[in-house]
Amino acid sequence: MADTSILILRACLALLAMPIYLLSFLGLWEPFCKKIFFPFILDRFSVVHERKAKKHKQELFRNLPDFTSPSGELKLLEIGTGPGANFQFYPPGCKVTCSDINPNFQRGLLRNMNKNQHIHYERFLVAAGEDLHQVPSGSMDAIVCTLVLCSVQSVDDTLREVLRVLRPGGAFYFLEHVAADPSSWKYFWQQVCCPTWKLVFCGCCLTREIWKNLDQANFSEVKLQHLSIALPWTPIRPHVIGYAVK
């Protein structure tokens, strides 16, 4: 019965989003979404999410200086930098390499770079999380990834690249929305929204159990916490937050 209800509600949602499905069929939605719609939406969503998640991020990134290399530098790679909402949490003097598969976040990125002059910006790479070949192995002290693993092609391949790029003893910091409890109404609505949500928001998947991928990756230590971030009228309230050490 639940499966039938999900299929019916998915069809209703698809009807409401029919113009987008039509544009997608014609090959017009994806370029428009990547260049205009998604950067516009993410820039505004980041402001809302930041307000709700700020205290959690402050606590998460508090120990970043502990992973400074023996040379005294802290080299950090951010996967999926987007508009640069995390820059404010990085310690002074931190050397940041930004990467994103979508290079169309210039407005928000420049704004946040100008607001956060306490860190040093090394370079910007147009790269997917699964393929960071431009970054040498073992070259980073820390890697940050927030609200990105939901939309990569492969979470496991991305984590393998994270482990390759991190130096031994380096840390991977994450904050990701995830699947809700399978017995909950939240999960029911995630299943209903998933196909249309994924189309509208550049491949963002609502039902990934990212904590399982992290547990199965070859980190020496994983510190992970489940939490709910109050984002009314959205299916992305359940999150995982923490860091993992190589």
TrEMBL record:
<dbReference type="Pfam" id="PF08241">
    <property type="entry name" value="Methyltransf_11"/>
</dbReference>
<dbReference type="GO" id="GO:0008757">
    <property type="term" value="F:S-adenosylmethionine-dependent methyltransferase activity"/>
</dbReference>
<protein>
    <submittedName>
        <fullName>MET7A protein</fullName>
    </submittedName>
</protein>
<dbReference type="InterPro" id="IPR052356">
    <property type="entry name" value="Thiol_S-MT"/>
</dbReference>
<keyword id="KW-0812">Transmembrane</keyword>
<keyword id="KW-1133">Transmembrane helix</keyword>
<feature type="transmembrane region" description="Helical">
    <location>
        <begin position="7"/>
        <end position="29"/>
    </location>
</feature>
<dbReference type="InterPro" id="IPR029063">
    <property type="entry name" value="SAM-dependent_MTases_sf"/>
</dbReference>
<keyword id="KW-0472">Membrane</keyword>
<dbReference type="InterPro" id="IPR013216">
    <property type="entry name" value="Methyltransf_11"/>
</dbReference>
<feature type="domain" description="Methyltransferase type 11">
    <location>
        <begin position="77"/>
        <end position="174"/>
    </location>
</feature>
